[in-house]
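INTERNAL AUDIT FORM
Audit reference: QA-55
Scope: verify that the stored structure record matches its stored sequence.
Auditor: D.O.
Record contents follow.
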Amino acid sequence: MTTALRAECFVPGNHLMAGLLGSRDEHLRQVERAFPDEQIVVQGNRISVEGPEAEVVVRLFDELILMVQSGKTLDSSVMARTIDMVREDIRPSEVLRSEVVRGAGGKTVRPNTAGQKRYVDAIARNVVTFGIGPAGTGKSYLAVAQAVHFLQSRQVSRIILTRPAVEAGERLGFLPGDLMAKVDPYLRPLYDALYDLIEPEGAQRLLERGTIEVAPLAFMRGRTLNNSFIILDEAQNTTPEQMKMFLTRIGFGSKCVVTGDITQIDVPGGRSGLVGLEPVLGAVDDVAFVHLTRRDVVRHKIVADIIDAYEIAEGQKAEGQIAEGRAGHSK
């Protein structure tokens, strides 16, 4: 039999209650759905909780109070991520206060989840960081934000953004222009992140001076990249040979981030340079692997739901293949 516990917290000011509980108590209802075994009672500025996880729920409200006090606006997605972090014994108020860089128009880029915080911390501590996870987890955007921070703080002298063009041997030949014009559609997501963090005019000047370079992966061969922040995006579409070539370009004073989603491999033959790399490089000093999950998705909630649906379908498909194999073996 589970022992019911009782705990409570106080909200320091009536002005915080609306932001904390939400319109028509929608945030309070979300907490109640997440902790169905807890009884939560709000009386004035006092929140009392009774149930087996009473202390966890009170810790959650303590964190939410700190977030509201700091000016953070709560919504259903922020609430969901905060609940996940508290369940993992992580302090959301500390995660969400971490600043990566202050971008264009004074926009501050911060990690929004525990996984994103581990990711940006790993980039800061290591020479090479692999960020692996599904769409919408901020892998590329946070990497570019860290690159801009390192450039602005003069820890590196240039930024190099690259990604493979998986169709370079086929469809690109029909596109107009030189090679850079042909691969530009593949590099566009990196430009988008860059322009969101730096004023377009300033970014264009840095591109023209070569302080920021955006180029296809093929342009990396034969180079040694010193004093640079290098990002390889969509790395699941490299071949093993391309991945080795890229990683051996890293020079003195450089930092490298490799991002990818191993569920979206488009490289011909499926020979991805990202798959199976962790057992090979995981024990190397100054190399880190950070795995982001659907809990780190910061796009529309439907993105996380779509990822869940695909994972369930792929799991069912794998189970079906195992069952078919067993049936065939028994004949």
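Auditor finding: record pair retrieved intact. The first strand starts at residue 5 and ends at 10.
Action required: none
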